[in-house]
Amino acid sequence: MKKIFLCCSAGMSTSMLVKKMEQAAAGRGLDVEIAAVAMSGFDEAIEAYDVCLLGPQVKFKLADFQAQAAQLNKKVEAIEPMAYGMMNGEKVLDQALSLLEA
Amino acid sequence: MKLYDQLIKFVEQKLGPIAGKLGAQRHITALRDGFLVAMPFIIVGSFILIFANPPFAADTTNAFGRAWLDFVAAHRPTIVMPWTMSMGIMSLFITMGVAYSLAKSYKMDGIGAAALSAMSFLLIAAPEKGWALPLNHFAGTGIFTAILAAYFSVELTRILKKYNITIRMPEQVPPAIAASFALLVPVLAIFLTLYPLSLFVQTNFGMQIPEAVMAVFKPLVSASNSLPAILGAILLSQLLWFAGIHGANIVVGILSPIFLANIGANAAAYAAGETVPNLFTQPFWDFYIFIGGAGATLALVFLMSFSKATHLRSVGRMSFLPGVFQINEPVMFGAPVVMNPTLFVPFVLAPVMNAIIAYFAVNTGIVDKAIAVTPWTAPALIGAAWGAGWAFKASILTAFLLVLDVLVYLPFFKAYEKQLLAQENASLSGTTQAEKTGQPVTA
């Protein structure tokens, strides 16, 4: 099973997107686990999950987080702002999956 | 328009990167995360304080109010005790939380750092008297000392480790046991540094370190209650958010010690039946200035929900419920407000106007100052009253500001709606044309 987590300031707005992504994944019959985590929980989450997507509003943490994830051979990317605002679960799920394949 | 372009360029190229660096800076991150540790104790604790001070006049004839007042009068110390042991000692939680987060960021032992920091704080802020710890610096007046104690103890431990100043164990000693000795030198180092400093401050200035620290930070704290400082903080937060950076995360991160020092003093005054001193608090910031999130966007979301433009309507309806709970990322990135020149003016103007009106309403005593800390996700109408000790005048102010925000956003929203309607119509007629010619329709 693939494990994805989204990360933002308090893990509030990303938790809404998680719901949409879960729906998208269920529609495709994918077996994935998706979670929303506050920035302060990144350290532990990156150990337990396969990939991280970052809310665009906390993009200033991207370089830090990428460096940390690279040590575990994992990837972190920021979510495209419009997909985030529209809570587009399909598109963000695609982004996460493409990161896992690459 | 030229001014706007220059401003955006400044935010993107200068302010944004600086704020990003600050937001990612480990001491500031630790500050924010450390406060999160203390928050539940402070929020629930301040709830008790409200219970201990019923919102009824002393001579009320209301039977429920009378019974409540009498109950509190008979059992006040018993009722207030949980407040004293939560919000009343918040600096202890803060020093541990900040030290834990900072140590973690250095990949050091978190619980050890938290314990060492607690000891450092107690050593300088609460020297034992008659086999009891004096609690007077455990709340608002101890916050800056608590933060400094956390920074100092963690950095000291780190430096000692870096220069290998430690008790060396023979190689046969198991690593787990050797690690348990790792804190011996730092504890001793704190004794040898902070304790003499504390004694020095006591004998030379006749005060404890927290009082000295408070004296240093006092100008900052009193400035925080002034309108220019409040407006400055709002502008900074708004400009960052407009560039798509979580401005509040950074600005509130830095403001939080001031917020807590202010509300701590307010709560203490309220508990003692004295005049509540400070205006600038977290409920003031969240529930008067930023109704529905940064930019007071609840008004915009409301307008969008009834828009003729499909895009605005769908984003508006999706953003409504989160907006009620002060979360506005969907509207910020969906409308979008971020980098949208049409919405720039109301996005800055609405919170500034809210702040000015609320400032005068609170300062003239029309509305009470906040005495309780609330979750920032409380709906603004409820949160305002909650913060002010369930004084519903505060909710009326919030409702009034919300209506004004709608008026501020309205013309700009209309202009943006017009742009989108034109686009939607254009793509619609494009579709019909494509259907006529049998061309495939691309989204």
Please give a quick description of this structure:
Chain A is of the alpha/beta class. Chain A has helices spanning 13-27, 42-48, 62-70, 81-85, 89-101, and strands spanning 2-8, 32-38, 51-54, 75-78.
What do these coordinates show?
The complex is a heterodimer of chains A (102) and B (443). Helices cover 48% and strands 22% of the residues of chain A. Chain A has 102 residues and is an alpha/beta fold. Chain A has one domain (2-101): Response regulator (Rossmann fold). Chain A has a four-stranded parallel β-sheet, with helices on both faces. In chain A, α1 (13-27) packs across α5 (89-101). Chain A is globular and about 35 Å long. Chain A starts with a strand and ends with a helix. The model of chain A has no long low-confidence stretch (mean pLDDT 91). Chain B has helices at 2-24, 26-52, 63-84, 90-105, 110-125, 143-162, 175-180, 184-205, 209-224, 227-242, 247-271, 282-289, 298-305, 310-324, 329-334, 341-363, 380-387, 393-437. Mean pLDDT of chain B is 88; it is low at 433-443. The interface between A and B is medium-sized, with 23 and 30 residues.
Succession of helices and strands of chain B: HHHHHHHHHHHHHHHHHH
How many runs of DSSP E, i.e. beta strands of chain B?
0
Greatest chain-chain interface?
A-B, 23 and 30 residues
Q: Which sequence of strands runs across the widest sheet of chain A?
A: 2-1-3-4
Number of helices of chain A: 5
Our measurement of the CA-to-CA distance between the termini of chain B, rounded to an integer number of angstroms, reads: 32 Å
Please mark out the parts of chain A with pLDDT under 50 across 5 or more consecutive residues, or reply none. Answer: none
Computed CA radius of gyration of chain A, to the nearest angstrom = 12 Å
Oligomer: heterodimer
Could you tell me the strand content of chain B as a percent range? under 5%
Biggest sheet statistics of chain A? 4 strands, parallel
Per DSSP E runs of 2 or more residues, the count of β-strands of chain A stands at 4
What would the CATH topology of chain A be? Rossmann fold
Helical content of chain A, roughly? 40-55%
Distance between the ends of chain A: 17 Å
CATH top level of chain A is Alpha Beta
Main sheet: strands, sense, barrel of chain B = none
The proportion of residues in beta strands of chain A is: 15-25%
What is Rg of chain B? 26 Å
